[in-house]
Amino acid sequence: MKLNLIFVFLLFYNFYNVNSSALNVGDVLMVNLTSIGGGGTLTSMVRGIFSGTLGYGENIDYFLFNDASGNIYTFNVAAWPAGVTLATSVATTAVNSATSPLIISNNITAISNQGSLAIVMTNTQIMTFASGSVFDNAPKTITNNPQTNMYMRCNSKNQGNTDLFVTLFSNSNVLSIFQYGMVSNVIQNPTYFGPNVQLSTSIKFFLNDGMGYNIYGGGSVIYVQSETSSIPITATLANYSFYTAVLGVSQGVRYIYLCTLNASGQVFLMVYSYNNETGAPEFSNAAFMGYGYECLSATIDSAAGQVFFSWFGYANTLTVSTIGVDCKGYDQRYVLPYNVVSNQPGQSTFSYPIGTRNSTLYIATPDAKVHMIKYTNLCPNLCSGHGTCYGGTCTCSPEYVGKNCAYPPPVFTSLDPIPYTSPNSTISIIGQQFINDTLVITIGSLTCENSTWVSETLLTCALPLDSTISWVPTQSQYVSIKFTTVEYNMPILKLNIFILPHIIAVSQLNSKIIVEGNDFLPLQYMQVELSGVNLTCAFEVGQDILSCDIPDIIPNRTNTISIPSVNYENRLLLIPYIYDISPSVFKADNSQEVTISGIAFATSEGTETFKVLQGTLSITVNSSSVSGRSIIFTPNNGIVTTKTISVQVGDIQSNSVTYTYIAPTITQVTQKDSPNNEFSISGDNFGTSVVLVQVHVTTQSNTLDMTVLNVTQNSIVFRGIENMRKGKVTVDVDGQSNNLGIDLNLIPRVTSISPLPPTSGGLVTINGQYLYDTLITLNSDVNDNVSLSCSFKTISNYPSEAYCTLLPDCGFFTIKVKSVYPGGQDTIDFESNYHEPVISSISPKSYKRSANQTFTISGQNIEERNLEVTIYDQPCNVTEVLPPTQVICEYISDVDPETVENPVNITISVNHIVGSNKQLLSFEKSCPNNCSSNGQCNIADGKCKCNESYNGADCSTFVPPASSEPDNISPSTKLVTNIFTITTILSLITTIFI
Questions:
Q1: What's the gap between Cα 331 and its chain centre?
Q2: pLDDT band per the 50, 70, 90 thresholds, residue 32
Q3: Which of 165, 259, 438, 458 is most buried as measured by Cβ atoms within 10 A of its Cβ?
Q4: How many other C-beta atoms lie within 10 A of the C-beta of residue 880?
């Protein structure tokens, strides 16, 4: 069934592909063969053979034939003109049997040749001839009675002195094969080759391939027999008869080309291959060539890959047909103007021998004529002059393609890829020199439903809808483009069918690696790698941003970021990123650990150094406190003004996060005793920086800022400003407040009262601190906790002055100052007294010893209460008091005048407050001899002040007046004085400069 299908196809193909240009009818020439020595034109040929048709059919060099009279003729075909203008050609006879007396029989049964060497077999002999003489002087005698179809074949390609194979076929269809050696053109004794073989029909062809095999056959059987084996291997094709054959080799494979007929008279080229090792023939191909009765001869143009057959056509026509060795090309037939008498006795493949030389087909006919037909190759349009033809198939030069080499090769430039997610699968293929032809475009395993030639630069391919959904978009697909009519397949390309992602940028955004681009594919086709580590990624809004998680521990600080599926690779520096810190509210000391949470802190290398930057302060962190996602550190002791935390790895700094400190708390405010304008606040989270702490005292009317002197984590020392008032104390530490505050009562202090109040009472100034908003009371002998009316003229409260009016009294008194504030009160006492008595005059101003003297003493603050008067520390008995300005007393002095110093001291004590005066009263002392009347007596000290010209204790010594003559100072004395003065000045100047 398979063979019949092949025949139907080949019959159809060849029937409609006849090309008359291969065998040129107008180029047929005929040569009339002439005998040697001008013997005239030969008129008959019994058997003929062209060298080169014995096996593989190389170009012929000689034509050998014999006539009916037994004459042998050899013609040098190479000497024949090959031009199409050839008319008749005179051939010289190389060998004529009439000159060979060794021939004992003219019944020639077989002929063969090896180049110019003729080998002739009669029914009794085998001889060799060359150059007009018989080489073999002792022709080998054949004792068998051969049949008409005898075959002699050499086992090489027309080279001399090789083995000769002879077939003998008995009347009972028993085949015998003898092998004759040949040495120096002399035939050696034969060797029987193989046993007798019973054949079903006569042998129609016998060939030796020169490679160790004899191929022969007839009827429906082909025999292939190795020269080393006595048993042939057969192939049978029922209902077909093999007539003639020729051998060939294509691409190292051995082929048998056979002219075959079936019962319907159809002529076929049958092609069999046979194995180089076993010789087993196997059917390969077939081609229909026409209708006829019998195949005659065969030859092959190995260079052109064309097989030629001669056969009997209908109406007894001699037909020549040619076809490619692979049954390709156009079947060419030519009917010669020659009538064939079929089934003539002795007719065989040697009756109409054919051969080829230089694109000319030679056909010999029994009338001793040689017909020459110029032929061209079987390729369409002769390969357009742009290639070589073999067996009907063009091998184009590199510049051309197609079955007829008529087109410059199409050039692929690019493929316009399609989006992976698009259901429209129409693909544009861009190039140059595209051939306008029916196309078959295959992409991957899919054949385009509509392959269209648009222009020389554009082809389109419409794949089935949604057919590409199963394809991996990053994998290239094989693309094949076939131009069917011109039979050209472009080189298969492996191309990206889908639009591959275009990566615009890769960057780090906080804790993510961001891949930006266009035409992204589904995630399973876009695995992002960080130095070989697969990342977990997700699409952001839309499909143009890919967000990937940074791994806990990154491979390196600078990594290779790649997407292998789309051939993307770049370098990316990963910066540590902080999510948050815990706790985010710090204590102001370094008593707690803080954990920084983030990403990209540590690398696999483990060689980096780590620092935490707290504001502008750098804190070194041990690597043992660092993991890929956390860093543990202890903050700085004290408050840092820039409240940010960042991480520095090597010289690379992370983002920063903010933190705060725990708000300050106040537990107590204490006022110092000295100085009492300084206060101590107890609490927590104050830090250590004075400049970051503000202390406020808030009253009902305003808030005042205090001066901070010292700060520790748990205490603040501040100084109150001069206009400070009692109120609520609050603390701001670096902008954070204890808004509740704590009540502060200022402890007042009185330092003095001025002036001392007169006994009649009046306005005094009470000097001290923190007297504002206090209650001031008076306690004395006659006043018990009496509130004073006071006023203030300045805003200062440190120091402060209270202007108060005191009630009349005398003696000592106590000022109580009480400051009251929510939660308690503070009271202080200040001891003072009324103004002491003031003595402004006394009368009389002197007194004597032992004399009773009444004194009237005038002044101020003289009261009767506990009134005491003393003169020179002796009591003066008060006789009368005129408060508050006068007192009268009596006094008798018994003090030794020598012990008294004038003026004497007067004291007045009023209610234990003493006033005194030592300027007004003198004790009268007598002078010696009453100064002898030459001077005045000073009663205060009892000494004389003598008049002029007297001296002495009693002024009794006269002192004469001094001389009035002027001083007599010489000029030399003045000069010496001046020189001394100048010398002294120069000496002083020198000393100063030195």
A1: 64
A2: low
A3: 259
A4: 10
